[in-house]
Write a structure and sequence with these properties.
Rossmann fold; 5-stranded parallel sheet; 15 strands; phosphoprotein; phosphorelay response regulator activity; chemotaxis
Length: about 375
């Protein structure tokens, strides 16, 4: 009897450390649908082995001899684009270089522990395997869709009792993302003016990387961006990014102001920070004064919270499939009916601003909006 089996995901591991190469290969080979076809100690070795094996995914060390990982990645994306998962050190320099790699087209990253490497890497074997599986499904050459792609719009959610909700001009923007999110968030923030409503963000990112991400966004946009601290007042023109891994970010009403609250309660949807935690707190504290967007990401974190926001009268947006690196989180939100609009990434900032202008005009005229 003959059986047909799909070809396994073919991976090449590139790292100057023989120990890391061995550990990564051992972890990935545990998965029945993944095959490490070779390893390479430097970019020149990797170049030849890519030609030889034509892999589906590459893991790439940030810091290597002969040619650094960024230079190699830049050349690779120009000559032979393919899904790349970066392997980064948990340092400030490692975080900044990793974010640069994501700008150049790397699809995701894992962090290399500083001590007890073997035990620590085995601890996140499942996450690493899932990242490789997800990366293998990403078409790197088709990461963007034309800005003029048609928007899908669904009717506003019915409110309890069918009544109309009053909206004030005291607005807040809540954004959530995961895989592919650092670049997606950058595009949204770059499309917003320096007097935009205050913004709170949860991006799935390790501790130590969120501050580097915030600093990078602060340099790249017209907004003031910082890693959130407990008690930060959410003000127009300011962006607050949830600290990676250690804390959830919540939005809380404090008199006439919104403030950031951090807590170290357990993971939600396997994540801390969790987008659901942020969105659900915004639904409770700001309700219909919230504008929210759920961007690219693996899994379903944020879908339940986006639905809670829509049910509270907020304007909710999900990034469309064509422009999402991974249409997991926003796709789940669309499936649940949580999104008022489903938009390509390039139109999300404009949609947020349009909703804010419409509400501001209604407020100035003493009216209310549904």
């Amino acid at each position: 009897m003959s059986t047909t089996q799909a070809r396994p995901i073919r991976v090449i591991v590139v790292d100057d450390s023989a120990l890391i190469r061995k550990l990564l290969a051992r972890i990935l080979d545990q998965a029945p649908d993944i095959e490490v076809v070779d390893t390479a100690a430097d970019p020149y070795d990797a170049r030849e082995k890519i030609k030889q094996h034509d892999p589906d995914v590459l893991t790439l060390d940030v810091e290597m001899p002969k040619m650094d990982g960024i230079t190699f990645l830049r050349n690779l994306m120009r000559l032979r684009p393919m899904p790349v998962v970066m392997v980064s050190s948990l340092t400030e320099a490692g975080a900044d270089v990793t974010l640069q790699a994501l700008e150049l087209g790397a699809v995701d990253f894992v962090t290399k522990p500083g001590t007890d490497v073997a035990h620590a890497m085995e601890a996140y074997a499942d996450a690493l395997i899932e990242k490789i599986r997800t990366a293998s499904r990403i078409r790197v050459q088709a990461r963007s869709a034309p800005a003029e792609a048609p928007a899908q719009v669904t009717p506003p959610a019915a409110t309890a009792g069918g009544g109309r909700r009053f909206r004030t001009t005291d607005r807040v923007i809540a954004l959530g993302a995961s895989t592919g999110g650092t670049e997606a968030l950058k595009e949204v923030l770059m499309g917003l003016p320096p007097d935009a409503p205050g913004i709170v963000i949860t991006q799935h990112i390790p501790a130590g990387f969120s501050q580097a991400f915030a600093e990078r966004m602060d340099r790249s946009t017209a907004l003031r961006v910082k890693e959130a601290e407990d008690g930060d007042v959410v003000m127009p023109g300011h962006v607050f990014v949830a600290p990676g891994t250690d804390y959830h970010l919540r939005l809380e009403r404090d008199g006439a102001r919104y403030v950031c609250r951090l807590d170290d309660q357990g993971p939600v949807n396997r994540h801390r920070p969790s987008v659901d935690v942020l969105f659900e707190s915004a639904a409770q504290s700001a309700g219909s004064n919230t504008m929210a967007a759920l961007l690219t990401g693996m899994g379903d974190d944020g879908a339940r919270g986006l639905l809670a926001l829509r049910e509270a009268g907020a304007h909710t947006i999900a990034q469309d499939e064509a422009t999402s690196l991974v249409w997991g989180m926003p796709g789940e939100a669309v499936e649940r009916g949580a999104a008022v609009q489903v938009l390509p990434l390039g139109r999300i900032a404009e949609a947020l601003l349009d909703d804010h202008r419409d509400t501001s005009r209604a407020g100035a005229n003493g009216g209310d909006t549904p």
